[in-house]
Specification:
The chain is built from eight helices and four strands; from the N terminus they run ααααααβαβββα. About 60% of the residues lie in helices and about 15% in strands. The relative contact order is 0.13. Helix 2 packs antiparallel against helix 6 and helix 4 runs antiparallel to helix 5 (about 65-80). The two termini are about 40 Å apart. It has a four-stranded mixed β-sheet with strand order 2-1-3-4. It is α+β, with helices and mostly antiparallel strands and about 170 residues long.
Length: about 170
């Protein structure tokens, strides 16, 4: 289903003008779909018409002039693909980050890093990906013994002692 979600996200991002605002709408709808069981049941109920579901979405969007976005929602309702809304949102967000030259990285280390070390890592990945902005998340995994692992752009950059030891064996 990832390929389907990617096609929908790609079609949406290429058809709308206000890409950042549309991303916020998608995020709100996807989040609400995930956390509100009544909302989810409504959108999964085949006896409730697409028009009623679209009216619910219209109430969630402050700018009623977002015709292309509402047409998109209408399409995924008609195609019975609303259950993919969260995945479509994530794919759209990724495409938007590419357009805005943003990169998200996960920094995994065996112990707490200093601010200067984090800044050095983010600057390095800013250059690698020609990014204007780097968003990062740091987590600690004591099993790494030492070093740093960074996940960025779907790739793993592993410079940990654990990996080096494993490679020696």
């Amino acid at each position: 289903m990832a390929a389907v979600s990617t096609r929908y996200a790609d079609a949406l991002i290429n058809s709308v003008d206000n890409k950042d605002e549309i991303c916020k709408y998608l995020e709100n709808i996807a989040t609400f779909y995930k956390i509100n069981s009544e909302f989810k049941e409504t959108f999964n109920n085949p006896r409730i018409t697409d028009e009623v579901k679209l009216d619910i979405i219209k109430e969630m969007i402050p700018d009623k002039k977002e015709e292309k976005f509402l047409n998109f929602i209408s399409l995924i309702l008609k195609e019975n693909r609303f259950n993919l809304i969260d995945d479509i949102y994530k794919k759209y967000q990724g495409l938007l980050d590419e357009i805005n030259k943003k990169i998200n990285i996960n920094i995994i280390t065996s112990s707490k890093l200093l601010d200067e070390e984090i800044q050095g890592i983010t600057e390095k990945f800013k250059k690698i990906y020609s990014a204007k902005e780097v968003n990062y998340k740091v987590s600690i995994d004591e099993s790494l013994i030492g070093g740093v692992k960074v996940i960025a752009g779907g790739k793993v950059y592993d410079d940990t002692i654990k990996t080096k030891l494993d490679e020696m064996l």
